[in-house]
Amino acid sequence: MLDVRRLRLLCDLSRLGTIAAVAETHTYTPSAVSQQLSALEREAGTALLERTGRRVTLTGAGRVLVTHAETVLAALERTEAALAAASSGPSGELRIGAFPSAISTLLTPALVTLGERHPALDLMVTEIDPAAVPAALLDRRLDVGLIQDYDVVPQQWDPGLDSVPMLDEAVHLAGTGPGTDLSDHRDANWILATPGTLCHTATLQICRAAGFAPRGRHRVDDFGTVLALVAAGQGVAMVPQLATGRLPAGVTLLPLPTRRRTRVAFRRGAASHPAVAAFLSTLPADRDRKLTRRRLAR
After folding, report:
1. Could you tell me the residue range of the domain that residue 253 belongs to?
2. Mean pLDDT of the chain
3. 28 with 171, same domain?
4. In terms of C-beta density within 10 A (0-12 exposed, 13-18 middle, 19 or more buried), how is residue 141 classed?
5. What is the pLDDT of residues 8-61, one digit of tens each?
6. Which residues contact 4 (CB under 8 A, 6 or more apart)?
7. Could you tell me the pTM of the whole model?
8. What are phi and psi of 2, to 5 degrees?
9. How far apart are CA 89 and CA 77, in angstroms?
């Protein structure tokens, strides 16, 4: 019989790439992870890992087992959800991960509604970059989280996750000076997000498509601060529509040739869990989630 906890470690190794990373995720020692994976190999009766010095890669059998293990883990999520649904209504902790502009505009009203409908739920919100949400969900540090992609930076999500659409919005260049095309700002100072974030990558891709690399002057992740810097003449920046509800005086928006999509993600099999289902039920209908260029022009 294959041990489920060891299967989870194997899936984490496939996702994270190193035994050290798996150990850090689970607060184990690398030696303990190696011992558990060796025990899993004995249970499977075949080699699952290839070891070359300090490097470890999955064998063909290891990759096959990971694929089936994802199905097993999803089935366990569905089982836990069914057990929770068979008891009382939504209760206990619901750990939610979201980026700042979504917390203030989309998530706060949903939390109020959720608290009124299900007072037994203990809602816990963590500010987190969308790029870090998949790992936090798979590591069970979050129960639901907001993930994103842009037309210019499409994402391939982990097979251990499911998601539903939440928002589709336009993206703009915020500035204060003249310019009717993105290339007009090739020599401007830019306010960029932190390298490694999705927003930073999307900005680089958009500018690259226009034939230049942005000259970064400031690195800021909070869009409210970004717009304040733009209004102060400190540079231009890429901002999504969600962040422009209170546009500072003097800041203008130039539509860019991309859109940003936000989805609510959760572990595969967890959609029917009472707490997760309750959270999803508070989201607006699809027709209310689209922020179009026509609305931006108002």
Report:
1. 91-298
2. 87
3. no
4. middle
5. 899 888 888 888 888 887 778 888 888 989 999 999 899 999 987 778 899 999
6. 72, 73, 76
7. 0.77
8. -80, 135
9. 17
